[in-house]
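Quick one:
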Amino acid sequence: MASRGFQSGPVFDTCTRLPYNTASDQTLRLSLSPGNRIVYLFRKVGKAPKTTRGPCPGQLQGVRAMRPKVLRRLFKTKKHVSRACVGVPCELSACVTGSSVPSFLRRRKSLRKCGRHNHRVRKLSQQMKLF
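Output:
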């Protein structure tokens, strides 16, 4: 009795089943190309929004680096930061203290001059959380 030749489908050695939802598991996807070949599709890596203002431009800290399609699904709290200077990439560096503290002191001085000092300055200093 002659044995028949058995043809199996394409074999991928590097793509194993990963049961955990990790970043490496999400980057690869198998797809059938128009040339009837099975190819890997790699997801592009997202980039965080950048700032061009201030002495230290760069990526905003605290904003997730994702593709636009994934960003649309996120909550608003994960798409922006809630700190005093939102557009400044570094939270407590020279660029923040160099701009916000003098403006706070000027505002405090102007409130003292006009006589409405007590509750307004206290409220302003609580907002800035400096004093």
